[in-house]
Amino acid sequence: RVPAPSHQDISSVITNIAKKEGCSLPQQLAQRIAEKSNRNLRRAILMVEACKVAQYPFSANQPIQELDWELYLKETANQIVQEQSPKKLSEIRSRLYELITHCIPPEVIFVGLQKELAKNCDAELKTELCQIAAYYEHRLNKGNKAIYHLEAFVAKFMATYMRYIEETFGGF
């Protein structure tokens, strides 16, 4: 296995790419992008591209844009927590399918959804969320239709979350 590139490696690569594209990327911005990319070179390059679309010429302290699909995934997770109904599950299925058709790997969708959903859970519910995610991610790896496993994960979490909310706040 090859280790992920260091922050310094990523910073130098994206600076070099920007130079070849005829752009001037400030060193501070390159370093911040390298740190925010979690040592993922592809992600860092996409972040530079998003920053250029948002504001060019670059400035050293400009905000780093999040990737569109990550924002879409966060919105999807928020919708799951806001309402648990068959209609909402159908809408979530469409959103998950949209992510898959844009070549976001199902494993990445699972991890992203789990991280975002965990932000809205207490310790007891987080444990159950991790168990549910592990179960359906394992089934995804064994199966061949990612959307079925993602939708089943969301449905199971919705049912678990609704049960938890009713048990916790049932008397109000």
Structure overview:
There is one protein chain. With 172 residues, this protein is mainly α. It contains eight helices and no strands. The protein has helices at 7-20, 27-36, 41-54, 68-82, 86-101, 106-118, 123-142, 146-169. The longest helix has 24 residues, at 146-169. The protein is elongated. The N and C termini lie far apart (54 Å). 20% of the residues are buried.
Question: Uncertain spans, ≥5 residues at pLDDT below 50?
Answer: none
Please report the distance between the alpha carbons of the first and last residues. 54 Å
Elements, N to C (H/E): HHHHHHHH
From the spread of the alpha carbons, the general shape counts as elongated
Report the portion of residues in β strands: under 5%
Q: What is the number of strand segments?
A: 0
Largest sheet, in brief, is: none
Helix-residue proportion = over 70%
Count, helices:
8
Mean pLDDT: 88
| Rg measurement, Å | 19 Å
Observed structural traits:
73% helix; elongated; mainly alpha; 172 residues
Task: Give a concise summary.
With 172 residues, the protein is mostly helical.
List the helices and strands and how they pair.
Layout: H1 7-20, H2 27-36, H3 41-54, H4 68-82, H5 86-101, H6 106-118, H7 123-142, H8 146-169
Helix pairs in contact: 1-2, 1-3, 2-3, 4-5, 4-6, 5-8, 6-7, 7-8
